[in-house]
Design goal:
Blueprint lengths: L1 E5 L4 H12 L3 E5 L3 H6 L6 H10 L3 E4 L6 H11 L3 E4 L6 H6 L1 H22 L4 E7 L12 E3 L4 E3 L20 H19 L4 E7 L1 E3 L11 H10 L3 E5 L6 E6 H13 L5 E5 L6 E3 H12 L4 E5 L15 H6 L9 H16 L1
Parallel strand pairs: 1-2, 1-4, 2-3, 4-5, 5-8, 8-12, 9-11, 10-14
Antiparallel strand pairs: 6-7, 11-13
This protein binds nicotinamide-adenine-dinucleotide.
The site of nicotinamide-adenine-dinucleotide (NAD) has 28 residues, from helix 1, helix 2, helix 6, strand 5 and strand 9.
């Protein structure tokens, strides 16, 4: 089996490389380190690429830009992968506003290049597209909420177990990032429904893990733990720090892709996050890190929330669990934080 991972030096991509390497598959990794271009030196993923090269035996890296249409078409006609895990992206909704062309070209056009290349050269392959909960936009913020001492939560029984896939995506503020990801999400669905390609679309909640090159604009938990351990400044933007995100470890994410790949349903959409059990507010996460390390970031509170930020989001995992009962969450938020702390300690000694 030949697996192509785009964004292979990033959080989810690198986890996919390790996952499929362990299974003995041949892995082609495509990543041009554009995260550094987007986020500066802190976003540089070279360390992660070097780590993969040391840890794997079946992995070859290609410095290919997914925006390079001819390059992508040629690559596919040469390599003909059996499984495509597409994680390369401009992943920040705030950054998109300052670089709208790059955001759309990477997220939407890059995805189209890969889908069309798959249709032409690997029509039987499974194509996993990593989408985002930002496709739902801020309409979620109109769900009735209740406030507890440390978090917001849904006060509407329809969302007791989280946000399902049929939540509307219209009439909502998405950010330009959300819009480029909607385009990619719908394209991936369409290549499944219209052309019969085996596409699976996974709308991520808060995807996390130790190998994230966390920066303020992307990689929430990783960046928070790093700021706490270094006792650096950390700004909470709005909602009293009680905004809720559902954390899922990158291993559990890739394991869901693998379950889908073994029994694909063309064009299906799944919400994929930590769900209700792994949902925590920002201030709850700060307390958890403090309890483990005795350290906290130097917190500044900004009344201004991030545009389009969700006040409360957790994924309803029912569809995924019903269709793929073998898949389960294996990491709690506590375990994820432990791993991130360990990885930061290893890197800093
Ligand atoms: N991390 C999260 O919390 C989260 C949440 C929801 C959805 N997602 C989605 O999951 C996917 C993976 O996210 P991640 O957290 O692993 O991001 P990441 O930034 O860690 O990894 C993305 C990788 O893609 C590479 N890349 C960017 N542009 C490229 C291009 N033009 N050509 C080739 N490579 C390119 C980057 O260098 C980076 O290594 C993205 O689609 C993202 O939108 C992430």
């Amino acid at each position: 089996m030949k697996v192509l991972v785009t964004g292979s030096s990033g959080l989810i991509g690198s986890e996919a490389v390790l996952f499929f390497n362990k299974m003995g598959f041949d892995i082609l990794g495509v990543d041009n380190n554009m995260r550094r271009d987007f986020f500066g030196p802190q976003g540089d993923t070279t360390w992660n690429l070097q780590r993969l090269q040391k840890m794997t035996r079946h992995f070859v890296h290609y410095d290919l830009d997914v925006r390079d249409r001819q390059g992508v078409l040629d690559f596919f006609s040469r390599e003909k992968p059996d499984l495509i895990i597409h994680t390369a992206a401009q992943p920040s909704h705030e950054l998109a506003a300052t670089r709208p062309f790059d955001d759309f070209d990477v997220n939407a056009v890059g995805t189209l290049n890969l889908l069309e290349a798959t249709r032409r050269s690997s029509p039987d392959a499974v194509f996993i597209h990593v989408s985002t909960n930002k496709v739902y936009g801020d309409a979620l913020n109109h769900i009735r909420l209740r406030e507890t001492e440390t978090r917001w939560d849904f006060d509407d029984l329809r969302y007791f177990n989280g946000i399902p896939e049929d939540f509307p995506i219209d009439n909502s503020l998405h950010s330009l990032f959300g819009a480029s990801k909607v385009a990619a999400d719908i394209l991936a669905q369409e290549y499944g429904k219209y052309f019969g390609l085996k596409t699976g679309i996974f709308r991520g909640g808060c995807l996390t893990g130790p190998q994230h090159s966390g920066v303020e604009l992307h990689g929430f938990l990783n960046y928070l733990v790093l700021a706490a351990m270094r006792e650096q400044p950390y700004t909470i933007y709005g909602y009293k720090g009680k905004q809720v995100r559902d954390q899922i470890h990158s291993y559990d994410v890739v394991n869901a892709f693998w379950h889908f790949a073994q029994n694909p349903r063309p064009g299906e959409v799944y919400n994929l996050g930590g769900g209700k059990e792994n949902a925590n507010s920002v201030i709850e996460c700060i307390e958890m890190v403090d309890a483990k390390t005795g350290k906290r970031p130097k917190i500044t509170y900004s009344e201004r929330n991030r545009i389009g930020d969700h006040i409360c989001y957790y994924s309803n995992l029912k569809k995924l669990q019903d269709q793929y009962p073998g898949w389960k969450l294996t990491y709690s938020v506590e375990q994820i934080i432990d791993e991130i702390i360990g990885a930061i300690q290893d890197r800093e000694v």
